[in-house]
Amino acid sequence: MSTDSEFLWYIPNDTKAGHRGDAAVEGHNSLETLTRHAKALEENGWKGALLGTGWGRPDTFTVATALAARTTTFEPLIAVRPGYWRPANLASAAATLDHLTNGRVRLNIVSGKDSLAAYGDSEGDQAHRYARTKEFMRLVRRLWTEENVTYSGEHFSVSGSTVVPRLEPRGTRLHPKLYFGGASDAAEQVAATEADVQLFWGEPLEAIQERIERLKGLSKRLDRDLPPLEFGLRITTLVRDTTAQAWADAEAKVAEMAKSTGARWNDHLQSIAVGQQRLFDLQNKGDVLDENLYTAPGRFGGGGAGTTWLVGSAEDVARSLRKYRDLGITQFILSDTPYLAEIERQGQQLLPLLKS
User: How far apart are CA 300 and CA 265, in angstroms?
Assistant: First the structure.
């Protein structure tokens, strides 16, 4: 793969044990356990990890800060929500953490449904939600790159705002990357104009290619004034020593999911967004698409990045990921459970095949 490809993992950041088949052990979300994950990522070739967010989970930014303080190269991809954060507060917090960690911060802007009223937030319809997100991302970037910012919009306003510490350019990186997901028309318009990285879930190659082409076209039509949009893939990768063992384990996992209707797997099912529905619809095309994209987990309760899996030996999965890379994907966020053991397995078996 090209040297511009980056490989991150996933840390669910969940108070409940057993997330997506993880080992349900005491202290699963303690600082000691999470630090073991972050240090294992450093030791096994990963760039960092996406940290899950949502009301009812520990505060993602606080967890990311604690892990960054205990590591040296680990880069947290911190999932945050407009409404939970206001633009100036997030811009300041992220600039501070970026300064303290010598540029290790990344942000994933999340617009999906949440328990908004629980933290005093409210939203209107989809158009309102994404209009607010667009304004949020644009203002955060301005606060990082300009001084004495005054802005009055439909959703947010600031007056004479200068965020400190000022962000230092690091090569071509002027500020933390803003990752963004979403498959609706409204979401894609936000991505085309405001995101640094558009994240896709595990759809077949043909569908990803169509979406990349559409987003590139949207960027031109909407007069994007940022560097070209990058593309990322967030997917479950089930890797074993042999192809046969991988498929046997994948089918066994799905059988276990079926017994519990996907309990602890389906944290994206409280509201079925367009992107999630696209994954569910893949079941109608078959249990296995392309060479090894497994859709059966979605039939038995898998949600989000747990809906479809790439299954096989390290060579099988690496071959599939290279095909996504050939389409233009440069950011890869992978995972499987048990999380800690798979950080090591895939770091040692899969990543060398992708970095060579």
Answer: 9
Are the C-beta atoms of residues 55 and 83 closer than 8 Å to each other? no
Q: What is the rounded CA–CA span in Å between residue 348 and residue 356?
A: 13
Amino acid at 268: H
Strand spans (E) along the chain? 6-11, 48-51, 75-80, 106-109, 149-152, 157-161, 178-181, 197-200, 230-240, 288-289, 293-294, 309-313, 329-335
Give the SS3 label for residue 77.
Answer: strand
The SS3 call for residue 181 is: strand
- Written as six digits, the tokens of 119 are 């933290």
Q: Which residues of the chain have pLDDT under 70?
A: 1-3, 17-22, 24, 261-272
* Measured CA distances, 286 to 115, 207, 220, 268, 299 (Å): 34, 15, 35, 22, 11
Q: Give the three-class secondary structure for 244.
A: helix
Give the pLDDT of residue 268. Answer: 47
**72-101 burial string, b = 16+ CB within 10 Å, else e?**
eebbbbbbbbbbbbbbbebbbbbbebbeeb
Sorted by sequence, the CB contacts under 8 Å of residue 38 that are 6+ apart come out as: 11, 49, 67, 70, 71, 74
Tell me how far apart the alpha carbons of residues 156 and 101 are, in angstroms, rounded to a whole number: 28
Q: Please, what sign has the CA dihedral across residues 260, 266, 271, 277?
A: negative
Q: Do residues 180 and 191 make contact, with C-beta atoms less than 8 angstroms apart?
A: yes
E strand or H helix at 23: none
Q: Is the Cβ–Cβ distance between 190 and 183 less than 8 Å?
A: no
Distance of alpha carbon 64 from alpha carbon 161, whole angstroms: 25
DSSP 110-145: --S---GGGGT----SHHHHHHHHHHHHHHHHHHHH
